[in-house]
Amino acid sequence: MRPIPQRPRRKRHRARPQIGAETPVHVSIRVRDKTWNLRKKHVFRVVREALAAANAKLRFRLVHYSVQGNHLHLIAEADDTYALSRAMRSLSIRIAKRINALMKTRGVRIPERYHMTVIKTPLQMHMTLRYVLNNYRRHAKLWGEHPEPDWVDPCSSAPWFERWVRQPARARDPCPDLDRAISPAKSFLLREAWSAYGLLDPAFVPGPMSESR
Questions:
Q1: Domains of the chain (ranges, CATH numbers)
Q2: Pairing of strands 71-78, 25-30
Q3: Alpha-carbon gap, residue 156 to 178, rounded angstroms
Q4: Is the alpha carbon torsion for 74, 11, 15, 124 positive or negative?
Q5: Rg (CA), the chain
Q6: pLDDT in tens, 114-156
Q7: CB burial of residue 159 (10 Å; 0-12, 13-18, 19+)
Q8: Which of 37, 93, 99, 120 lies 20 to 30 A from 48 at CA?
Q9: Which phi and psi (to 5°) does residue 43 adopt?
Q10: Residue 120, SS3?
Q11: Pairing of strands 60-67, 25-30
């Protein structure tokens, strides 16, 4: 008698850490290979529309974001782990559907699993903010690009950030008719505590996030 083929076991993931309304998180979402560059104006537009829709959800607040070529960095707050999970799932579905419509394709654009780091200290919050808001500079350095010291990334929430050590140059909004897709922070860590380590420098070039912890 031939053995019955067994289904491959699904990879087990560790349970998400529990969070509350006073717990900011850093979330990274990556798109699959062969997806169009998320920073291209027509693609960034649908991404920002999706971010705005996620930010409108109850019990979830998107405070900062950075859109790179094949991934997004988000700094967010949610009332609990379930609210965050629901918001991330909704966001991923919206982005995937809108990009597939642009590309005239079908299929999975964003893996189901996203990466999340819970922010626990003012120093960690400070380092996460400058990593996310200046994230384009990290990639530009690898390509040999050197943006001006007062430049901030228009494909991020950096143009609306008000706690720079000096006033950056005004960034041209690629989608001025759209909602900014961000909300004010409510947690003390993200609202105020991080600034004990100084205001942010728009010229700062982040290293790997592991070096910032």
A1: 25-172+180-212 (3.30.70.1290)
A2: antiparallel
A3: 13
A4: negative
A5: 18
A6: 899 999 999 999 999 999 999 999 999 988 999 999 999 999 9
A7: middle
A8: 120
A9: -80, -45
A10: coil
A11: unpaired
